[in-house]
Amino acid sequence: MKVPVTAQLLDGKSLARTIRLELRDEIVEFIENNGEVPTLAAVLVGNDPASEVYVRNKVKACDEVGIHSRMFRLPADASQDDLLALVAKLNRAKDEPTHGILVQLPLPKQIDSTRILHAISPLKDVDGFHPENVGRLVQGAPRFIPCTPYGIQQLLVRNGIETAGRHVVVVGRSETVGKPMALLLMQRGAGADATVTVCHSKTHDLARLTRQADILIVAIGQPQFIKAEMVKPGAVVVDVGIHRTDAGLVGDVDFPTVSQVASRITPVPGGVGPLTVAMLLVNTLAAARAQQ
Ligand code: NDP
Could you tell me the pTM of the whole model? Predict the structure, then answer.
């Protein structure tokens, strides 16, 4: 039985298509002006099925907009030194230019992800995880904004959702989503200027805080955890979570109930996911421009 939805859907899939179309023209112009094709190196270690899908989607999206992608695969038992050597080679890449480097996470347990992410040249760090780029974000002068928070900010701005002065509650404090999301929205300027509360697994009485949110952004990795009674009527709800279940893909938000309370809500799939990929392309073009 289909559940009635009262909230308006925030359609990430169609916005991602719009962003890709915009990029296509900018990339043609970049190639004409510089005689070089923006190039992304995607590194996949092992054969985790979800990571395979994510990398495949990213490579396909590159093709669609005219970004050249180079795919590098290492076996599941590759050592940290093997991966560091590959990253060093891609950092240098002079003969065949590589403007952006993406190392798909998670990495096998014998490899320290932090070591790898810190080894990527900050000028090629299109995921925005290098400490130099994180520091720049903290200081309000970002170079590369991590793709998922960047996509969510675009979703809010381009749907006319005001963030200035509004109470945004971010649930989750990961380095890749929750923390940079909060940093981005607390900055000064358009698409920001929010009053931000960050919650995590040690937060007491989570529902009391989530119910205060004008905009609730959830990235906790717990299927359908946020229920209607945790959401203020009329709030905007952004669901970052993605889980494969027997019933199909679901998010961290219980869509059937929350969509009857919220004013606007992202679907899963078709919400945040496609925008994460689109913003990787945006960052890759930005990296190519910065390296000219
Ligand atoms: P992490 O596991 O790295 O972080 C989860 C965060 O949620 C942690 O800060 C944790 O708190 C907090 N948390 C966990 N359980 C609870 C709880 N019950 N109450 C409050 N806080 C809680 O996850 P990610 O940020 O990497 O990803 C979150 C979700 O988003 C996952 O489902 C992931 O698959 C998805 N994702 C989707 C993307 C997309 O493009 N759509 C991109 C990236 C992620 P603590 O710090 O205390 O442990």
Answer: 0.97
